[in-house]
Write a structure and sequence with these properties.
Elements: E1 9-11, H1 30-42, E2 50-51, H2 58-65, H3 68-77, H4 84-89, H5 107-126, E3 132-135, H6 156-168, E4 172-176, H7 183-188, E5 195-202, E6 226-231, H8 237-255, E7 259-263, H9 281-298, E8 303-306, H10 317-328, H11 333-339, H12 379-393
Parallel strand pairs: 1-2, 1-3, 3-8, 4-5, 4-7, 5-6, 7-8
Helix pairs in contact: 1-10, 2-6, 5-6, 8-9, 8-12, 9-10
């Protein structure tokens, strides 16, 4: 980032912190608190970098993304005591008390606040107020126009993309590194040539949502503006990064976006309990570095970054998301992280959040000591399979 560029901004996550299903649900806002705690402990986040998550366009944008009957159902189910009629229809809209996405009191307000944060990030970047903007409360990429799915009520990523298209007529490249396919965003823009959706994820043969195969390439005028790279279970860093960098090289040469919107789910880490990909923290150092470089090469620095999945709340998410912010801000600490074995030490007084769920042992370095991990026995076979899938996935790109 050049010295004359406007500074990156952090979108206030306090309103998004109300997006909470129940105490035992894996999608828990403690991830946001732990990340902020780590960055404050490092001296890498200050109040002057934080901007409001409010946007005046939330309601209008939601109506462009979601069906009116779905919005009405969410609002009805958000009341302290939903009506019997609303409860009877809940399953139709993806809400089941014992399912992945149960309804809860205040759900509409909390989910709308998430959308507001992602729109605020898009506004900051597109108006030139900021070079980059990060809203870690966002990244709810599974929600569909007519139903919730996979912990996601409203699709804030699709809302941000739609708003950018609508307000600025800009071409958006959406990059999704969550271990689960970014299905909701893909299907929102599957016939839209102005939004390119790229998702790299564990193959749907084994993992929710069961989609995101290499032959999903868009339709009608949007054909070719969609790329999926489904990787094998137990894929490791080198193979994952090979697929990621090769894909982005081809996409940018073909699509030439005006702005990048990226979703930074960090559940492809080996410690994540909900998936089977075996990456280390090295991937979460490299992803933002690659996207940052490409933003300055192709989009004059315009970059909106969102959160996403990640269900090892203590060991993985705070480090991964902190590395993202450090990269977005070109923080000097990165020089030490990049030059030190295992990235150097984390602050000794972190975490400072009290919780009876805190693990007995926590990582003490930014990166993982993968030399102590049990080697994956099928590494060569997995890498070869990923290269074959990548070749098929890239066939339609120039």
């Amino acid at each position: 980032m050049t010295s004359s560029a406007p500074a990156p901004v952090w979108i206030d996550c306090s309103a998004s912190g109300r997006y909470r299903f129940h105490e035992d649900h894996p999608f828990h806002p403690i991830r946001l608190r732990l990340t902020e705690d780590l960055l404050y402990a490092c001296g890498a986040l200050s109040p002057g970098q934080i901007v409001s998550a409010e946007s005046n366009d939330v309601d209008e944008t939601l109506e462009r993304i979601h069906r009116s009957d779905y919005l009405d159902a969410v609002k009805e189910l958000s009341t302290p005591v939903p009506s019997p009629d609303a409860v009877a229809l809940a399953a139709r809209y993806g809400f089941e008390p014992d399912g992945d996405t149960p309804y809860f009191a205040g759900m509409h307000e909390a989910a709308a606040a998430v959308v507001g944060g992602s729109l605020a990030a898009a506004e900051a970047v597109m108006t030139g107020r900021a070079s980059h903007a990060l809203h870690l409360g966002g990244g709810l990429h599974h929600a569909f126009p007519d139903r919730s799915s996979g912990f996601c009520v409203y699709n804030d990523a699709a809302a941000a993309i739609s708003w950018i298209n609508w307000r600025y007529g800009a071409k958006v490249l959406y990059i999704d590194t969550d271990v689960h396919h970014g299905d909701g965003v893909q299907w929102c823009f599957y016939a839209d040539p102005e939004a390119f959706t790229f998702s790299i994820h564990e193959t749907g043969k084994f993992l929710f949502p069961g989609t995101g195969f290499a032959n999903e390439r868009g339709t009608n005028s949007g054909y070719g503006a969609c790329l999926n790279v489904p990787v094998e279970p137990y894929t490791e860093d080198d193979s994952w990064l090979e697929c990621f960098t090769a894909s982005l090289t081809r996409i940018l040469r073909s699509f030439k976006p005006d702005v990048i919107v990226s979703q930074h789910g960090c559940d492809a880490h080996a410690f994540d309990p909900l998936a089977h990909v075996h990456c280390s923290m090295r991937v979460y150092r490299e992803i933002p570095k690659i996207v940052h470089r490409l933003a300055h090469e192709w989009t004059e620095g315009r970059w909106v970054a969102l959160g996403g999945g990640g269900y090892d709340h203590w060991n993985v998410v705070p480090r991964a998301w902190s590395l993202l912010w450090l990269e977005m801000t070109d923080h000097p600490m990165l020089r030490d992280i990049d030059s030190s074995p295992n990235g150097g030490e984390l602050p000794k007084d972190w975490p400072r959040i009290a919780s009876d769920r805190r693990p007995r042992e926590l990582p003490r370095t930014w990166l993982d000591d993968t030399g102590r991990w049990t080697p994956i026995p099928r590494r060569a076979e997995i890498e070869a399979k990923n290269r074959q899938v990548l070749e098929v996935a890239l066939q339609h790109l120039g």
